[in-house]
Write a structure and sequence with these properties.
32% helix; 3 helices; five-stranded mixed sheet; Endoribo_LPSP/chorism_mut-like; 60s Ribosomal Protein L30, Chain: A; alpha+beta; globular
Amino acid sequence: MTDRIDRALEELGLSLPEAAAPIAAYVPVVEAGGMLHVSGQLPFHDGQVMTGRLGDNQDLHFGVAAAEACALMLVAQLSKALDGRLERIERIVKLGVFVASAPDFTDQPKVANGASELMVKLFGDAGRHARSAVGVSALPLGAAVEVDAVVKLID
């Protein structure tokens, strides 16, 4: 699967960023009972956090791109936790997508599609997952989007 993901990234013109270090007292990934629980990941572009609030100072297109950037960071964290052996992933089980939103912004599911669609492009059917898409007033470091995940490993 690792080769497939590398090819898919190349075809999409994307590359995995370096896995970000935690900004507080937590670890990026915990393995428990054959599942990986990935802490919330922020969107980075050119080394900077993509900031703002959707429906306020950022638009839907920006939000989708930010969610995709979060998904890339999730995969980078998975790769680091698995020593590059992404073929150990059986299924992306669930994504939690948090969108910094103005009070009247209601397109959180459309923003979350940026992360969801990338998981399917990279992992195929194993990338189809359950999901939450939640609007929040603010996220760490002023990020526009944050995404966490639960991933099942092959036994």
